[in-house]
Design a protein that fits this description.
The chain is an all-alpha fold. The longest helix is centred in the last third of the chain and has 18 residues. The radius of gyration is 21 Å and the shape is elongated.
Amino acid sequence: MAKKARQTQHPEVTEMMELWVSKAMAENILLTGEVLRQKWARFANIVGIPQDERLNLSEGWLSRFKERLNLKQFRRHGKAASASPEVVEREKQWIQELIKMYGYELRDIYNMDKTGMFYGI
């Protein structure tokens, strides 16, 4: 038997959240629990939901929201954990400009770290 679709308390905010999360994921934006809570509050302001009618954005709400949208948790380690997403995006754009400027072909572009160099790969 299929699960019954659950009615949300503020469907307009839920729809805005779902659209925003979809766009954010397409743009590789890091989605933390705090970011999701702040975005929900911002959308509630836009829609005009009074403070006393707002959801308690608890850990339970967050886990159910992530489950509903099939969001997974990934832990970043090492250098990835310390890199600012804005800096990473800026550097990626700079590399793309260099590739165009110097006319590199895709077959001439490699991704390598020090381990590959160590083993002579």
